[in-house]
Specification:
With 157 residues, this protein is mainly alpha-helical. The protein contains six helices and no strands. It starts with 6 loop residues before the first helix and ends in a 19-residue tail after the last helix.
């Protein structure tokens, strides 16, 4: 049986994988939002003012999402990731629900006139759940530095 890596190496690995999982979650959430908005393209023609506002806000695409939406969603997501890491939660359901919650919280904090007709609560929650699953795939499956089984006691010879 291979030796376990030292605790410091496991912590360093988690400090690298958790932010990578967050970035992967942001990218997947943004892609999901783009796919959902393309499904609503027929509705967009009915509301040209909101489309102009939406187009002006997201003309930079991924970089806008990374530098504007990332920190806005980042605070609740960091709390969810820290809870997952501290308690070694490795369930995909936890990360999907936490992703949905971290997407819905900032969206719910927006003024009521900003959301427009394009995105419903279910759309935003679906984006968050997809982002949470992406984080789980990258970093959540092996969350925590605590091993699942305690070390075997030394054998008495």
């Amino acid at each position: 049986m291979p030796a376990e890596p030292p605790m410091l190496a496991r912590i360093a690995g988690r400090l690298i994988m958790a932010p990578l999982g967050f970035v992967a979650g942001l990218a997947v959430g943004f892609l999901t939002l783009a796919l959902i908005s393309s499904n609503h393209f027929g509705d967009v023609l009915l509301f040209p003012d909101e489309v102009a506002l939406f187009g002006a806000d997201l003309t930079l695409g991924f970089w806008t999402a990374a530098f504007v939406l990332g920190p806005f969603v980042g605070a609740p997501a960091v709390v969810a990731v820290l809870i997952g890491e501290l308690f070694a939660i490795r369930s995909f359901a936890y990360y999907a629900l936490a992703g949905a919650a971290t997407a819905v919280l900032p969206w719910a904090a927006l003024p009521s006139g900003v959301d427009g007709p394009l995105f419903s609560l279910a759309d935003i929650a679906a984006c968050g759940a997809a982002a949470g699953l992406a984080h789980w795939l990258v970093a959540g499956r092996c969350a925590g530095v605590i091993t699942d089984e305690p070390p075997a006691p030394p054998s008495a010879a």
